[in-house]
Amino acid sequence: MCQLLALNCKTPTDATFSFTGFCQRGGRTDEHADGWGISFFEGKGLRHFVDHESAVNSPVAELIRRYPIKSKNIVAHVRKATQGEISLENAHPFVRELWGRNWVFAHNGDLKNYHPTLHGQFRPVGTTDSERAFCWLMQEIAKSHAGVPSVAELTLTLKDLIPQISHHGTFNFVLSNGDAMWAHCSTHLHYLVREYPFSNAKLMDDDLSVNFAELNNPEDRAAVIVTVPLTDNEHWRAFANNHLVTFIDGAAAIHHDLEAAHAKLSAQLPQDMRDAIALTQAQAVEALARYKRNTLAASGAAS
Amino acid sequence: MCQLLALNCKTPTDATFSFTGFCQRGGRTDEHADGWGISFFEGKGLRHFVDHESAVNSPVAELIRRYPIKSKNIVAHVRKATQGEISLENAHPFVRELWGRNWVFAHNGDLKNYHPTLHGQFRPVGTTDSERAFCWLMQEIAKSHAGVPSVAELTLTLKDLIPQISHHGTFNFVLSNGDAMWAHCSTHLHYLVREYPFSNAKLMDDDLSVNFAELNNPEDRAAVIVTVPLTDNEHWRAFANNHLVTFIDGAAAIHHDLEAAHAKLSAQLPQDMRDAIALTQAQAVEALARYKRNTLAASGAAS
User: Fold this and answer.
1) Whether pTM exceeds 0.90
2) Which of A33, A67, A69, A37 is nearest to A50 (CA)?
3) Per the CB < 8 Å rule, is A88 touching B46?
4) CB distance A45–B125 less than 8 Å?
């Protein structure tokens, strides 16, 4: 299992506060020490940092905590290896180009026996189930549209494609092409929208507070998507399971319930596969509960 | 015009010394202040850093000068914009995936009226002639081989493809897929091989010396490819014009003279286009001569 962090913003926003808390889960407050990565869109361009070291020890992560990079779409990931060895090519986020645009993807979960037919232009460099799923998504998106589709059209395409992957296991993911952020929840994903009037926020994983009212302008707005809430004094919303949410300009703009399509395909799986997936998901629930207990305990000790 | 730096090494090698001198040309000792970038292969994985700030002022470049990243294939670039605005998506090196491998490309030069037919899986994200050339190379490489070819086979393919681009103007470039480094010289490119017994080296652009004998083992070997030599006490070799050299394991392994194919295609160009290309190349020669005079003068003053 891994953890995800993504920001979709109305105006270019720096993620140093959220990333600082998130990094602690990459080896200090949680066990996701098998690599990390973060991608920042800047117009059509991309700054992309990956490392197979733990996020708490990486000099590159330290730079990003200190150096504010402003972006409207940011995708970050800390990794606890389940499939694929610990190596740079297995670090999320993954990037591909399609139609002259960069596409960035990060995954939290575990897909069982997932070996899609990849006959086209997107092939995995590493050995993770996550990159295979991303390559298949990109291949099918490319086949579904003759040219660059709108965000609404892409959302409809993803709505059809996601259940074909998600019934293989846990498929919490974020995807961005710089225009929008798509987030899908199989089991665990939360979000909040920081907007006017802004308030204070205090990290759960680090002794750090910030008053966003002092840093932001009234027109700023940022949606923050994360596996487990980063702060203990803000209103985080849990995604419903098997829901796809499209974030545009810092707001949750389009919601799709994929439960029925997911359940239909899940029912076709053999019983032993369904049992294996359920076991993995139960282990993930337990790991997250353990992490929350530990973090809250540590947080209490420090206050 | 821009400047290129690339390393192809027998064993994983850090490039902090060469990159430190090279960075000075990104705004201090020379005028290439319109962005920079560097890519490090690590196995099949890639660390890729780009910035549209000047290399001398960029916090990310500062990190890389201090933080040794060991790699067998490194590609770096400082940019002086000729075509395409100053933006992140126009910063070299460019990266694409083909056959589950990363491919990295950086270009020094200027291609006149170069708008190749890009019908396939590689499209430029930015607006430079360089990225168009890279996309066309990748498209044609993909069409030329059913699966992953050997380094020797790829070299033969490049030998056929390069003149089809180089007759449009100046096409000094480096390309790597992590297995080898291909370097092509239209007008300006130099290389040296650092190997046992290693010696001292002193940067021309910075007050920095290093004794490679103290840092390296006898089995280490690194080929350093650069637009203008980085040091004034090592034996740099100038590439012959219109030559393609394939570097493997830190040595210049395969040489191809593309002069005849290049000249044949150049002769088919209209006279005004040939004049425009010759003018651009003369301006580049003058800019490089001016840079060498200034650097040597500054170097003399500091000693």
Assistant:
1) yes
2) A37
3) yes
4) yes
User: Catalytic: B9?
Assistant: no
Q: Is the separation of the CB atoms in B239 and B189 below 8 Å?
A: yes
Whether A50 sits inside 8 A of B50 (CB atoms) is no
| B119, amino acid identity | H
**Contact state of B47 with A88 under an 8 Å Cβ cutoff:** yes
For B190-209, how does the pLDDT look when each residue is reduced to its tens digit (9 = 90+)? 999 999 999 899 888 888 88
- Distance to chain A for B48, nearest Cα, Å: 7
Q: Which residue has the tokens 């990390």?
A: A36
**Buried (b) or exposed (e) across A12-47, using 16+ Cβ within 10 A?**
ebbbebbbbbbbbbbbbbbbbbbbbbbbbbbbbbbb
Q: What is the CA radius of gyration of chain A?
A: 18
A121 at interface of B, judged by CB pairs closer than 8 A:
yes
Q: ipTM of the assembly?
A: 0.91
What dihedral angle (degrees, nearest 10) is formed by the CA atoms of A224, A230, A233, A238?
A: 60
Query: Sign (positive/negative) of CA torsion A248, A77, A42, A15?
Result: positive
The structural domains of chain A, with segments of one domain joined by +, span 2-302
Residues of A belonging to the active site:
2
User: What is the residue whose two structure tokens read 């700054």?
Assistant: A47
Residue located via tokens 């986020």: A93
Residue by residue, DSSP assigns B143-211 as HH-SSPPPHHHHHHHHHHHHHHHHTTEEEEEEEE-SS-EEEEESS--EEEEEESSP-EEEBSSSS-EEE
| Of the partner residues A90, A96, A100, the one whose CB lies closest to the CB of residue B124 | A100
Handedness of CA A30, A32, A35, A39 (dihedral sign): negative
Judge whether A101 and A176 are in contact, CB under 8 Å. Answer: no
The answer to whether B148 faces chain A, any CB pair under 8 Å, is no
Name the token pair of B275.
Answer: 């004049």
List phi, psi (to 5°) of B147.
-135, -160
For the domain bounded by B2-302, which CATH number is listed? 3.60.20.10
Which of A47, A50, A89 minimises the CB distance to B43? A89
CA distance B247 to B252: 4
Which 3 state secondary structure label does DSSP give A181?
strand
DSSP strand E in B186-276: where?
A: 190-195, 200-202, 209-211, 221-226, 237-238, 243-248, 251-257
Cα atoms in the 13 Å half-sphere on the side-chain side of A301: 8
Interface of B with A in 42-101 (CB under 8 A): 42-52, 59-60, 63, 67, 87-91, 95-101
Cβ contact A100–B90 (<8 Å): no
Which pLDDT belongs to residue B122?
97
How far, CA to CA in Å, does A93 sit from each of A41, A229, A260, A290, B63? Answer: 12, 20, 29, 25, 21
How far is A274 from A167, CA to CA, in rounded Å? Answer: 9
Partner A contacted by B30 (CB < 8 A): no
Tell me: the pLDDT tens digits for B229-283?
Answer: 999 889 999 999 999 999 999 999 999 999 999 999 999 999 999 999 998 888 8
Contact criterion met (CB < 8 Å) for B90 and A120: no
